[in-house]
Amino acid sequence: PKTSKYSGLIKRFLSKLSVRQKKAEEELQKLAVTDHLTGLYNRRGFLLLAQQHLKVANAISMTLGFFSPI
């Protein structure tokens, strides 16, 4: 296939655009769960973090329950 002289330039541009989009999405995700003034978790962030910790605690509890005597 014939490639244009701009194909390398276009690839680099799209690559940079993709990186910028990924960074913007990460920043948006961070802003969705933190207070913009303090950087602390907001209600949504706290609930997500609590949910993650509860999953871990349940997994540990089930594992420990497996080893307990009958």
Short description:
The protein is mostly helical and 70 residues long. The chain has helices at residues 7-33, 43-67.
How can the largest sheet be summarized?
Answer: none
Please tell me how large the radius of gyration is.
23 Å
Helicity level: over 70%
Number of helices: 2
Portion in beta strands:
under 5%
In angstroms, what separates the terminal alpha carbons? Answer: 70 Å
DSSP summary, beta strand count: 0
Return the average pLDDT rounded to an integer. 89
Characterization of the model:
The chain has helices at 7-33, 43-67. The chain has 70 residues and is mostly helical. It is elongated, with a radius of gyration of 23 Å. The model has no long low-confidence stretch (mean pLDDT 89).
Topology:
Layout: H1 7-33, H2 43-67
Name its key features:
70 residues; 74% helix; 2 helices; mainly alpha; single chain
